[in-house]
Every structure is written in C-alpha cells, then in structure tokens.
Automatic annotation (TrEMBL), chain A:
CDD domains (UniProt xref): TM_PBP2
InterPro entries: MetI-like, MetI-like_sf
Superkingdom, natural source: Bacteria
Full protein name: ABC transporter permease
Protein's cellular compartments: Cell membrane
Leader sequence residues: none
Topology relative to the membrane: Multi-pass membrane protein
UniProt similarity note: Belongs to the binding-protein-dependent transport system permease family. CysTW subfamily.
Automatic annotation (TrEMBL), chain B:
Family: Belongs to the binding-protein-dependent transport system permease family. CysTW subfamily.
Regions that span the bilayer: 12-36, 74-94, 106-128, 134-155, 184-205, 235-259
Entry protein name: ABC transporter permease
Location(s) in or outside the cell: Cell membrane
Provenance organism: Streptomyces rugosispiralis
Alphabetical list of SUPFAM superfamilies matching this protein: MetI-like
Keyword Hydrolase appears in the UniProt entry: no
Assigned keywords, A-Z: Cell membrane, Membrane, Transmembrane, Transmembrane helix, Transport
Membrane topology: Multi-pass membrane protein
TrEMBL record, chain C:
Keywords: ATP-binding, Cell membrane, Membrane, Nucleotide-binding, Translocase, Transport
SMART domains cross-referenced by the UniProt entry: AAA
Domain of life: Bacteria
Annotated CDD domains: ABC_PotA_N
Assembly behavior: The complex is composed of two ATP-binding proteins (PotA), two transmembrane proteins (PotB and PotC) and a solute-binding protein (PotD).
Gene name tied to this protein: potA
Record-given protein name: Spermidine/putrescine import ATP-binding protein PotA
Reactions it catalyzes: ATP + H2O + polyamine-[polyamine-binding protein]Side 1 = ADP + phosphate + polyamineSide 2 + [polyamine-binding protein]Side 1
Organism: Streptomyces rugosispiralis
Heme is among the record's keywords: no
Pfam families linked: ABC_tran (PF00005), TOBE_2 (PF08402)
Residues annotated as domain ABC transporter: 10-238
TM spans (from-to): none
Protein's job: Part of the ABC transporter complex PotABCD involved in spermidine/putrescine import. Responsible for energy coupling to the transport system.
Single GO MF descriptor: ATP binding
Amino acid sequence: MTATATPDAPPAAEPVRKPPLRKPAVRKRLVPYWLLLPGILWLLIFFAAPLIYQASTSVQTGSLEEGFKVTWHFQTYWDALTEYYPHFLRSVLYAATATVLCLLLGYPLAYLIAFRAGRWRNLVMILVIAPFFTSFLIRTLAWKTILADSGPVVGALNSLHLLDVTSYLGITEGQRVLATPLAVVCGLTYNFLPFMILPLYTSLERIDPRLHEAAGDLYARPITTFRRVTFPLSMPGVVAGTLLTFIPAAGDYINAELLGSTDQKMIGNVIQSQFLRVLDYPTAAALSFILMAAILTMVTVYIRKSGTEDLV
Amino acid sequence: MTALTRWIRRNLVVIAGLGTLAYLILPNVVVLIFSFNKPNGRFNYEWQRFSTDAWTDPCGVSDLCGSLSLSLKIAVWATIGATVLGTMIAFALARYRFRARPAVNSLIFLPMAMPEVVMAASLATLFLNMGVDFGFWTILIAHIMFCLSFVVTAVKARVMSMDPRLEQAAQDLYASPAQTFLRVTLPIAAPGIAAGALLSFALSFDDFIITNFNAGSTVTFPMFVWGSAQRGTPVQINVIGTAMFAVAVLCVLVGQLAGARRKRS
Amino acid sequence: MTQPTSGGDVRLDRISKTYGSFAAVHPLDLHIPAGSFFALLGASGCGKTTTLRMIAGLEDPTTGTVQLAGEDITALPPHKRPVNTVFQSYALFPHLDIFENVAFGLRRRGVKSVKKQVEEMLELVQLGDFARRKPQQLSGGQQQRVAVARALINHPRVLLLDEPLGALDLKLRRQMQLELKRIQTEVGITFIHVTHDQEEAMTMADTVAVMNGGRVEQRGAPAELYENPGTTFVANFLGTSNLIEAEITDKSGGDLVLTAAGGKLALPAERCSAPVRTGGKLLVGVRPEKITLAHAEDAGTVPEGRNRITGRIVDSSFIGVSTQYLITTPDCPEITVYEQNIERDARLVPGAEVVLHWNPAHTFGLDAAQDIDAGTELDEEAP
C-alpha cells in the first residue's frame, strides 16, 4: 500500500510519518509491540525455541542413563534416512493420494454448496462441519466397523470381484480391506476432507455467477466454462485446500495405527514410537527435522509453482 | 438421449456432491447405531443386539467421564488463553504498520504449516530437558500455542474488513479512545473473535497428537479413546460421540434460527 | 461541554499536510464565517477531504493551526472538539440500531435521558418509525438522514460533511440537497461541505472554495465563481467554458480590445484576472449559454457593440430544454453553444454558416500561461 497516494488513509495506520512533536506519538508507536509481546513470546518460547532445540538434540549422542551431549553426530541423520526411507516415501505417497482424492471428492460438494444448494446451503454446510464435533478418533474407529472383514464394504467389493483387482494392484490383501493401504488412505481422505472443502467453498462462493452466464453467452460449453473460468478462479482455494490436507496427512500416525498393519506404518508412527516407546530422542529429533524440512521445501516449491504467493 | 440420462448429466455435480456428503456423514451414523449395541467381547466393532445400557449409564466405564471433564477444562482454558493473546496480536497486525510485521506474520503462519507431530516432538523435547513434569500445564501450554495462529487469522480477517471510518465516527461523536474500543471496535470484531474462540475450543478438545507427546500419564478424552482402541472399546464412547454431535448440531441450528429471525424482524 | 446554539467561525492559518514527500495540502489560509454554508469543491485527490479531516481532528496538520470561534483547537483530539462529521458512506455503527446510533454522541457526553431528544431528532429527519431498525435495513437515503441526525443531535458548532450524497442516485441527491439546505437554515450551524460535484456545491453553498492540487484556486459566491472564473481550472471545472487564445491590441475606455479568431473582441478590464500589456497574450472565455447563434444570412441583424465570431456548425444534439451546437471557426478550437429551445431556427443544422455573438460583459480574461484544458477531464470522476 502506498501511503502517499491515499490521503484518506487512517492516521493510526501510518504512525511512522507523524511528526514526533508530541509525546503521545512516541507512546503510540509502542502500542503494537505491547499488543504483540505476550502472544509472540508464547510462540517464540513454545514453538520456535523447541524447533531449534530439537535441531541440536538431533546431533547429540548418549543414553537415557548417562544423559545426552551435543557431539555433532550427523551420522544419526544418515542412519535414520537409510533405515526409515520407506516410511518417508510411504507417507508422501499416502498423503499425496489422499490429497488428490480429497480434491476429487471435495470439489463437487464445494461446488454444490456454492452454486446449486439454494435454500439448502446452510443445512449442507452444517452437515460438512458437524462431524468435526465428534472426536475424530471415535469416527476413525467407526471405519473399523465399516471396513470390517464381514462388513458391507468387503461384501460388496467381493461380490463384484473388485477385491481381486485391488489386491492384484497391491492396495488390498487377500479378502481384507482393513489393515491394507486402501484402508489407511480411505481414513486419511475422510479425516482431512473438510479441510479441502472449506477453502474450496470460500473461493468458489466469491465467483460471480454471472461469469458463468457470460461464458455461456460467449459460446463456452458447460465443461469449457468450468475449465476456463470456474476452475482458474477457484485456484486459491485449491492451493489452500491441498496444503491444508497434505501437510497434516503427511505427519499423521493415527490412521496408519488404527486402520493399518505394520506394513502401512508412516513416518509419524516411527517418530512417535522412537520418542514415546524407544526413547531414542536424537533419532526422533532427526526424523522430525527431516520431515519438517521436506514439507517446508515441498510447500514452498508448490506455492511458487502455483503462483499464489500472496496466500502466505 | 433419454430424459433420464439428460437429467443425470445436468445434475452430475449434485449427485457427486451428495455422494461425498454421504461419505462424510457415514461414520457418524455408524457411531450412532453402535451406541445402541451390546457387544459380546471387549470391542464394539460388530453388531450384536439392541440395548440402551450405555445410554442409561454413560459414565459406567472407569476414567471415561474423568477424562472428558479434564478435556473440557483444558479446552476452556486453552480457548481463553489463545483468544486473548491471539486477539491482541491480530489487532496489532491489522491496525499498525511496524518493522517486524513480516517476521510476525511468518511466525503466525508457520505453526499452521507444520505437521503436528513435529511440533509435538520438539515441544516435548524441550519440556523433557528442562525437567518439567508432564501433565495439565504442559498440555495447556501446548494447546494455547497451536490454537493461537488460528485465532489470529480469524480475528485479523474481521478487523481488516472493518471500515476505519467507524472508529473515526465514534471519536467524532465524543468517544474517548478507550470508549471507542469498547463500544465500537470490540463489538464489531466480536464475530471474528467468537469464530476464533470456537475453533480453538474444537481444536483443543479434539487434539490427540500434541497431547499424546506432552501429557505424560494424564489422560484426556482423545487419549482415553486411543487407549481403548488397544484395550477394548466401551459402547459409552459412542454414546458420548453421538451426544457431542447432537449438541453441536442443535447449537448451530438454534444459532441459525435466531439469526434468521433477527434478520426478518 | 456547553451546548452552543449557534455556529462558530473556522479559521485555518497556514495549514498544510504532507505524507512523506507528497504534499496533500499546501499551506493555506481560509476563513469560514459563522453560520455559513461553505463548500470545498474539487476532484478526488485535490486535498479537500484532508482539509476537512484536519478540521475534524482526524488528521494532524503538518504545519499551521485550526481555530474555532477564536479558540485554537489544533491540539485537541477529535472527541474533544465541538465539531461533528457526516462521513462518506455514512459510517453508521452496524451493531447498533438507529436509535442507539443517534444517541451515541449524547451518551458519550454523559447525557442521562436521551429518549426525548433522539425521538425529536428522528422526527426532524422523518425516521421516527425506524428507531429500532439496524442500519443495513435502511435505504441509502434513509441512512444518509440517520448520519445527519447522529451528527446534528450534538449541536456542534460546525458540521462537516464529507461527500454526504455521493452514494445516492441523481434524483435522491437533488432532493437531499434541498433537505440539507433547509436544515442548515433552520439550525443556523456552520456547514462545511466537501464534494466533487460542482452542481451540488453551487446549489447548496453560500461560498465555494475550488481546490486543485492541494491549493485553493478561487473562492467566492457560486454566481461570482461561475460568471468570473479566475483560472482555467475553475472555468472548466465549474460548468463549461469556451476558451480562445487572444492578443491585446488596444485599450478603449474600460474595455480591452483583443484580436482573436480573425476578429475583434471587447473585454471589460475589470473582468480580466491576467496582467494586461498591449501586445500580450490572453485567454478569453465565454460560457456556452451566453452565446446567441444567427444564420449567416441574418448577419446584418446582429446589433452593434456585441462580440462576434463567424463559424460553421459541425454537430448539434438535442438535449430537451436546449440544443447543444459544436461550431468550428477558422483560427480557434471548437466552440460549444447552448441555445434555449424557444424558437428554433430550422436552418441551424450541421454544415450551416453562422455568426456567434454575445454581450462583451459576459466575457472574461485569463492568464494565457495556464494549461487551457485544466479541469476539463475531471468532472465525472468518482469520489
């Protein structure tokens, strides 16, 4: 914002250019810092400092009994990567699959709420948000019932002989859905779907419906209208939604734990067990440091590529 | 083309959208149905027969209601803490230009772009090395930390969209800066603050990963559910899940109706 | 705080405002007499709103002082000034109903029983039945009246109006102009009105100050500004002017004799704001409605002593009360003429040769060193 071009700008917004003639001007300039102080301190101490502390933990050696010391032992990173790279790859693969599924499933629903729901809009919106209010662990456990070996899903897939196809593709095993990659991805998709729908809806809702009419008027078929007008305009929602889905899905360990077997363990499971069961803090720190770096890199590249840097 | 295929083509989006909606609602329906189940073993995954036992005795499992009230207590305090601190930051960001603004913006954004497990493990490492006892306070500190960013985002959006002339009009009408804040700024920012607070409450109440790392032996409601997935899932979990769902939907509906009535009058 | 019943005069002394290196308002002196209806007129970005906000206390002047009824109020914060503002787009509090909006100022000053006053005020603006509505439920015109009521109930010494009619449609705007004028006459408070609409300024105000580029170009009664503009900006911004480049050839009696468009024109010396020097250049101006058109065949009937130019009609458009003609002449740009539709001469069609003539007393002279087109393009600009 160029302050010079807008003489109507609120005076509070530009405290810098006020002449320091009167004392209150100086005091006024400190106001934002007083407002920021407690919250920012909280974040610095309990968010930023731990991250730095964790980085130092990752290059420590020692044991629980003798204590840990910083020895710049970068070997931990190498060991962690060679031992757990399948978990990293699996995390990225599962999270990416779930994100794409969320986009495919979420877009029609967001579109429905934005343009087609009419007077049902509020009700549908409530139904999207309401599941949030039941503890998501309980809802994830419900998938155990839905996907159970004697349950309706397995029965239906079996009678269509689809389970043979899916197990040939390696996403299910034998006559089971539970404890297979399909179940984990299904759980991830389910859990993070609302995080895709809400930003999509927000950006779709801002689109003037007359733009659809204008596109139709200019000889665009409905599918062309969608490809050339609606979808490009909803890009901010697509980017925000995919980030909000991918990031938590990549670090998740609940779905793999509850719906998967040992063969579906993700990197989150490894960090959790290294930290809370094996008590190997340097390895846990190194793993979560790698995860953080990987995700921040991917997010940055993705935001650059999609050209929506103003999102941040 | 028959009339039916034409109808399907025209309403493809609606059909697909409703399918997604069914996918979203299905687990809640299962939770509801299985709250009336009487399982044979320790696990409530297969339907046996109808029973209202769990509904008549929701606290019948040891520690369940204790963990529930602990979760509520933590959620209330985390909401208050995060809302107060977050609202202050939001006002500073929305109303003032200062040099540290970009840095502050990044610090607010990062927790939302960070996998929970990373924040959880790093904070726990810090507590561990400072020799802090894990429990109520460590959980509360962690919850305020990750709720803060969401409050800032919600309140900032609201304050930014507010016409600065409203505050100038208040001053012009003899309101001192303090009165202007209390009588005009705060009431107009209230929906944003309420949204941030509601989100904080939901996030804190339902949090598992960060709590898992920072709770020690303290058991919140999500921790109880997690533990029961290993030891055996009591039907009462479904009762509480369903009750929460019903209360939430009821609150939203009442709010909607009240809003609609106010608009009409 | 006392409740003054009459307006106070406002005196701006060398007041200026700069943002960084941008001067929004150059040092200016302005005296606004008590009880007057004063308009600050100009295009957007000319500094008129900044000037108003400095009077309200919403903007700190970089230099200079603001005096109200002889008292220096430069250092007073807005909530301590006996001045109220009707904001652009009204700034009604969305969370309060109409009654509470109007009562806001009284309550802040600790007035206990506001009911009677508020109800009276709402009656004055004919909104008595709307007291419990929220601002969003009112139409633009009704919101505007609430904004006026909310300011007036405090009996300010000065009422500041910042483009108060900008958001209304044309018909409603005309109606509200008369309404505001009526209220001002009734309450006798000093009104300072900021607008970019020259018709609005001229209809309502006793005195108009035309601002351009952070400076006051000219101030005076509307008729005086219109009939005798002092700069090309005022001539073009206030209505339409025909400006013709001319050379001073002689002086005879109280008149200057000029050569322009291949003929001789007379200009009363007191209507020339430029330095006069024989052989010097001038811009000579005349308003389109002062000019009479005669067909070339009737050239002989034009009375003696009138300024006359010959030309050819290139375009004519029928407007209703009048017809607008565009006329080219050999040596000067196109001239616009408005003719009342009383007795239309059927020969006055595009292509016809005509004689333009007008009373020399309606001619004005401007300094030729100025931009001849200043103020022409800004007329329709949004606030």
